[in-house]
Amino acid sequence: MVFASPRKCRLAIPAVQPLPGKFGSQPAAYRDFPNRAVLQGVPSIVKAFPNVPADSFRHPPGKIATFGTMKDLFRIPAVTLWRIWFYILVALPILVFFPFLLLLTISQRTYPQFFWMARNLWAPVILYGMGFVPVIRYDQRLEKGKSYMLVANHTSMLDIMFMLRVSRNPFVFVGKKELAKIPLFGFFYKRVCILVDREDSRSRSGVYRRAQNRLKSGLSICIFPEGGVPEETVELDSFKDGAFKMAIAHRIPVVPIVFFDSKKRFSFLFFSGSPGVLRARVHPFVETADLMAADKARLRETVRETILKSLRSGPIK
């Protein structure tokens, strides 16, 4: 890396033949970078992301890649501190209310009180502390005391906090067991959420039993049906069957929810994001009372199409 002028940061990229990649041809010079870094300029200086389409590069191979002005370079420490601040905000309320949270996780009967604390004391601290303003449009309201299957697109760590703000009805997340390894957060995550190992069929079958117990106690279930966070170039990944199979089995409505701004505001790419409005839309519910197990695929695709169309058309003003 050399500084060609006081205002420009440049990196010479040698001319090379493209190599095939998952999303198309990629110059070998990019793929051989440490951590497979991709140079994209503003808003991100470097994105450590392995499989980026070749047409996302803003310069041809063999030319000079500009990082932008010196102002852009100051963005790196600013975004780094902002990201660190996020983890501080995640941990701080947990530390402050640790004794109360621990007591409320001893029994499933006290879960609604735990949910209240997570929704009203933990999630707002993170969202507003990071400079995000939640704006939620409801096409249909959730009824108090009724169970639902909440499903939404998943692109950011913010989706957990944002979902807590969407629903006043207590619900339980069904999520990956890997999140239980996160210090402090993982301690409570594994105590109150339904963990699933997607590589283990016995774990997946166990999810249905644990979810059934929660539904019998009047709680709702929340699942991100993409089965994880899709790659940055994917608008909406294909849906897994679990949420829809469970909704039909227990005759509970499916609630399609769209998060419009999570990826833009706080994606998994480190040098990206900014404070601002976080918009969500709760679509009309899809009833399952008259559906059979054979209707699982049709229900899944109906809900996915609703979310995809909403993402492409954008939030209604």
**What global shape is seen?**
globular
Question: How many structural units, i.e. domains?
Answer: 2
Structural class: alpha/beta
Mind telling me the CATH class of the largest domain? Alpha Beta
CATH architecture of the largest domain: 3-Layer(aba) Sandwich
User: What is the H/E order?
Assistant: EEEEHEEEHHHEEHEHEHEHEHEH
The percent range for strand residues is: 15-25%
Rg from Cα:
22 Å
Widest sheet: strand ordering: 8-14-13-9-12-10-11
Mean pLDDT: 81
According to CATH, the fold-level topology of the largest domain is Glycerol-3-phosphate (1)-acyltransferase
The termini sit apart by 45 Å
Separate helix tally: 10
Total E-strand runs:
14
- Mind summarizing the main beta sheet? 7 strands, mixed
What is shown here, in short?
The chain is of the alpha/beta class and 317 residues long. It has helices at 28-31, 70-96, 98-104, 111-129, 158-166, 185-192, 201-216, 242-250, 262-266, 296-313; strands spanning 2-5, 8-12, 18-21, 24-27, 37-39, 46-48, 64-66, 132-138, 149-152, 171-176, 194-196, 220-223, 254-259, 276-282.
